[in-house]
Amino acid sequence: MAKKAARNLVIVESPAKAKTIGKYLGPDYEVRASMGHLRDLPKSKLGVDVEHDFEPNYRPIRGKEELINELKKLSKASDTVYLATDPDREGEAISWHLKNLLDLSDEKAKRVTFNEITRKVVTESIHHPREIDQDLVDAQQARRILDRIVGYELSPLLWKKIRRGLSAGRVQSVAMRLVADREKEIKDFVPQEYWTLDALLKNDGGVPFRARYYGKDGKKYEPASQEEVSAIQAEVQGLPFAVKSVKRTDKQRSPAPPFTTSTMQQDASRKLNMTPRRTMAIAQQLYEGVDITGEGTVGLITYMRTDSLRISDEAQAAARSFVTGRYGAGYCPAAPRQYKTKAGAQDAHEAIRPSDVDLTPERVKSDLTSEQYRLYRLIWSRFLASQMSNAVYDSVSVELGAGAHSFRASASSLKFAGYTAVYEESRDDEKEEKAPALPPLAQGEVVTLTGFDPAQHFTQPPARFTDASLIRAMEENGIGRPSTYAPTVSTILDREYVIKDGKYLKMTPLGDVVNGLMCDRFKDIVDVKFTAHMEEELDEVESGKLPWKQLLRQFYGGFESNLHQVEKDMEGVYLKVPDEVTEEKCDLCGRNMVIKSGRFGRFLACPGYPECKFTKPLVVEMPGRCPVCGGRLMKRTGISKKSGKQYNYYCCEKFPTCSFVTFDVPVKDDCPVCGHTMFKKSGRGFKRPFCINPACENFLPEDQRGYPKRTAASDGTESGTNGTAADGQPTSETVQTEASDKPTAKKTATAKKTAAKKSTAKKTGTTKTAAKKSTAKTAAKKTSSASTTEETPTVTKAAAKQASTEEAAEASTAAEKATTKKATASRKAAAERTTTKKATTTKKATTAKKAAEKATTAKKTAATKKATTSAAKKADAETEE
Question: How much is the pLDDT for 92?
Answer without folding.
Answer: 95
